[in-house]
Amino acid sequence: MDPHILQKLRAITGDRGLITSPEQLKTYECDGLTNFRVLPDAVLLPSTTEQVQGIVRVCYEAGIPFVARGSGTGLSGGALPVKDGVVISTARMNRILEVDLPNARMVVEPGVINLEVTERVAANGFFYAPDPSSQSVCSIGGNVAENAGGAHCLKYGFTTTHVLGLEVVLPDGSLAHLGARALDAPGYDLAGVFVGSEGTLGIATKITLRIVKRPECIHTCLAAFGSTIEAGAAVSEIIGAGMLPAAIEMMDNLAIQAAEAAVHANYPNCGGLLLVELDGPTAEVEALMQQVDTICRKCGAAEIRVAQTDAERALVWKGRKAAFAAVGRISPNYIVQDGVIPRTALPRLMSEIERLGVEAGIRVANVFHAGDGNLHPLVLYDRRIEGQEHAAEVLANRILELCIEAGGSITGEHGVGEEKKMMMSKMFAEPDLDTMQRVRCAFDPKLLANPTKVFPRPRLCGEQPGEYHPHPLELAGVAERF
Amino acid sequence: MTPLANAENAGNAPAAAGPGNGATSAETGVANPWDNLRTVGSPDQWRDAGPEDRIAGVQPTMVLEPINEVELATALRYADSAGLSVIPRGSGSKLGWGNPPTRADLVLSTTRLNRVIEHAWADLTVSVEAGCTIGTLQDTLAQHGQRIAIDPLWPEHATVGGLLSTNDSGTLRIRYGGLRDLIIGATIALPDGTLASSGGKVVKNVAGYDLPKLVTGALGTLGVITRAVFRLHPLPHQVRSLTFVARDAADANRLMLAIQDSKLAHTGLQVRFNSGAQPEVDIRFDGTDQGLAAQTETLRKLAAPATETHSNDDVWYARQHLFGAARPNRSEPWSAGSLLSSEVRLSRTKEDARPTASTPGDTPEDSSPAAIAKFSVLLGSIASTCQQLRNLAEPLNVHWSAVAQGTGLGWIRLGPANADAIQQLLQRLRSQLEPAGGSLVVQYRSPEIPEIEAWGNPGDALPLMLSVKQQFDARNTLNPGRFVGGI
Q: Is the minimum CB–CB distance between B19 and chain A shorter than 8 Å?
């Protein structure tokens, strides 16, 4: 990297806030998706909004791409560095700035850890609803970038539902306030657009969150079915009965085995395990839990257990949230997939995935947010066996295609990032993607903020969408555009 | 006027008459900007705009009702390239919201795009065309015991597109979120003729930018919404509303804060203020019989010093009542814009009103100027906002009433009063709310009241909003001048 630029950056963050040594840079070469790695030119660790602005301004003037990074737990390569670019880590911006209980608002810096938000207000009976499985380590800034979900978003909504206002450093270094602490600020809902934009529209430096009052009563039950198909039928019946549970999660036998091996959650050994959580006023929850019990038995549940204490419930959830990592116990390598289907397509998709797995000689463990049709097939393989990695990748992609064909989405909560940008053109038509690019150009005309992510082919700002012109390399048959 | 059937030949063919003046391009030797445009659709889809089509007093030239979204996008493209401005319109029930347009040539009506495309009831989603009314949509959804969890103004008239563009949701928002939280997909037509879809048919989806949120509340200034997909909720088993009379605004605010701080799972919370009378706090529960009984008991203990009074589900029409006669008249065939455009006066149509338990405000006399504004503050500031309003209204001798929700959103109605006094009050109240992070948006103003910018200050994000507008609608074709900051 140009020494003049490094000097400018050092002047902003000081030595403590600048990493350039290759060994230290290695920490930042990937996020939770480890099969993509790029070494950044430098990593910056600003402590204030002004420092972020300063860094971004330097990048803007010199045309250096930058990638913002929270805790680096993302699963789609969103925080993967860009070649010849810098990484801006928000790890040191980790203060909770304000807690306003009467109005159920908190203002935090992007580096604050998701779980810390809840911990700060738990004693007052509040919680922060979005709860990705990585909540004990992932940052709010990263949650904002990815529009993180979690098990409880079935009832409570996603990160975007709970972010009311943002202070944002735009890709030219200027500051803008999107949304507000009060609802419906006049103008376009740019906070709504920013959340989930995967770091391509700027860097959030202050985030106003909505916190939620903890319900009077929470009941969690485990229902053991012979198969995921049976369990899936129970899900449809529960929703069909007009209930909106706080969460409905499903695990298949492989996932149950993995979770048991890892955290001894004491799950029943069965073909399809359903975890149903209801919350609300006690009388209401008790009445509805009766219904859930009846429905599950009718759908063939062999065993139904209700977590009686907070400790029991915590264990039930620990098993579920540890499931991704736990799969490491039953397979040396695996791909975590994230796709969404309309819930009614669940039985069909489950059989199809099973069939494809058998055909390819590859095991697939299934853990998912069944209530909203968000599948997390874990495609298991052994890298040491020749051809298996490739076969696993092909299978993982095929599953996503099935999701698209079923009218679903290629990602429910992990984001597009680097991993799925080529799948975007299977889910969206060219005019759809071009329209999204217009938003990007409005925020980032020089295309410096995480420029290589999300879109299969970033359209240069000012470039008119129009007739497709093949690249000379494509004409020569050297390259192919997906 | 004879619109041409074939779009491709339009440029060379003898032009259809220019609207209004009857001159053709052949006669004047100048290309008529309407020539291409008039080739879209068939004659029965076109009509000359009349006084009832005015937008906040501005007279448009023609009205087109496309029969599908491709036709709509084509018309938009032709208008855009001819430099004609376009006013998208649903039923027109909220057409007066926003600033008067700086230009108004073509009204693009979504009336005929009114199908419920797919109610995937087992998946709790619905795809619907923009011109479908909320009433029709909710009736369809109710067949499977579901609804979009919104209770907007004038559901019999309000269309999906208009509702989204004006971001009007209602009292259920406190439990189910606003439209931004319920829309999961949208298709929009852009001024260059692009039809773009974003989001999808599933509730959980983070692929690509969230354009459905971008167009929600954008007042049709970025594109014309042609269809939308929503997540649905089951209809409640039972609903119960309760009302408590508070001593004063501070008391009412305390009660609302206590309710919000409790473990009650209410689906509605509002306070009704009427100058002179004691404020009344309404709360609504949905659920099973057992659940309702238990919650009611808890609430009564919580509300203790406040007196409970008779209540029913009609109290939730309070906001609609605030608009009084500034709303569609059920006794007449609905004609767009006839009551809500600002040139139409409020009139007394009591027989048309929903029955309510003590609704705020009397319908003012025909000749009385009145205004309605939406404010947004934090819940804890409702009493102080009410006090600010009172302090401003008294010396100016402005009669007022208001309803505020537990979300911190509220609506005030000013009048009858002197027109200048109303304008002054609105400006002063806005200048007091904005520094504290609140806002005040004028949604109705009778014509005697001097002009006041509708939206207030959008803050330091305005340059960004302008560049978004530039990217989507570079020629400023859609609803010019009607949105924030001159957009």
A: no
Asked if A1 and A41 touch (Cβ cutoff 8 Å), the reply is: yes
Residues of chain A contacting residue B380, judged by C-beta atoms under 8 Å apart:
102-103
Could you read off the pLDDT of B147-167 as tens digits, one per residue?
999 999 999 999 999 999 999
* Residues of A in Cβ contact (< 8 Å) with B188: 435
Domain count, chain B: 3
The confidence band for B324, taking pLDDT boundaries of 50, 70 and 90, is: confident
Whole-angstrom Cα distance, residue B315 to residue B322?
12
Position B9 pLDDT exceeds 70: no
Domain shared by B120 and B169, yes or no: yes
Specify the DSSP element, H or E, that contains B73: helix B69-81
CATH superfamily for A217-405 is FAD-linked oxidases, C-terminal domain (3.40.462.10)
Q: Do A454 and B208 touch (CB under 8 A)?
A: yes
B180 in contact with A, Cβ within 8 Å: yes
Eight-class DSSP state of A221: E
Instruction: Quote the CA–CA distance of B334 and B183 in Å, as a whole number.
Output: 27
- Candidates 1.10.3290.10, 3.40.50.150, 3.40.50.300, 3.30.465.10; CATH matching A96-213: 3.30.465.10
How far is Cα A13 from Cα B347, in angstroms, rounded to an integer?
A: 65
From residue B21, alpha-carbon distances to A64, A221, A284, A429, A436 in Å are 57, 73, 67, 42, 41
Rg (CA), chain A: 23
Instruction: Verify whether the Cβ–Cβ distance A344 to B123 is below 8 Å.
Output: yes
- For residue B366, the distance in angstroms to the closest alpha carbon of chain A comes to 31
Least CB-CB distance to B468: which of A188, A280, A411? A188
> Residues near B419 by Cβ (< 8 Å), separated by ≥ 6?
B369, B446, B448, B449, B450
Largest CA distance in chain B: 80
The answer on B89 and B162 residing in a single domain is: yes
Q: Does the beta carbon of B340 lie under 8 angstroms from any beta carbon of chain A? A: no
Mean pLDDT of A431-456: 96
The partner residues of A68 in beta bridges, in order of sequence, read: A88
User: Distance between CA atoms of B459 and A273, rounded to whole angstroms?
Assistant: 50
Beta-sheet pairing, B86-89 with B62-64: unpaired
Task: Using an 8 Å CB-CB cutoff, list chain B residues near A432.
Answer: 196-198, 208
Residue A190: list chain B partners with CB under 8 A.
Answer: 214, 461, 464-465, 468
* Cβ-defined contact of B207 to A420 (cutoff 8 Å): yes
**pLDDT at position B325:** 57
ipTM: 0.93
- What's the predicted TM-score (pTM) here? 0.92
- What is the assigned CATH class of domain A3-89? alpha beta
Residue from the list A185, A287, A344 with its beta carbon closest to the beta carbon of B439? A185
Place of tokens 């929600």: B216
Contact between chains at A196 and B294 (C-beta distance less than 8 A): no
Chain A residue with minimum CA distance to B289: A284
For A51-68, write each residue's pLDDT tens digit: 999 999 999 999 999 999
- Domain residue limits, chain A: 3-89, 96-213, 217-405
- The structure tokens listed for B2 are 């004879």
Chain B residues within an 8 Å CB radius of A428 = 197-198, 207-208
Q: Is B199 left (phi over 0), alpha (psi -120 to 50) or beta?
A: left
Which chain B residues in 97-136 lie under 8 Å from chain A, judged by CB atoms? 120, 122-125
**Predicted confidence (pLDDT) per residue in B216-246, tens digit:** 999 999 999 999 999 999 999 899 999 999 9
- Do B459 and A441 lie within an 8 Å CB cutoff? no
Task: For residue B227, give the DSSP letter.
Answer: E
- Whether the pLDDT of residue B347 is over 90: the answer is no
Residue A268 makes CB contacts below 8 A (sequence gap 6+) with A222, A224, A256, A302, A303, A305
Q: Are residues B88 and B216 in the same domain?
A: yes
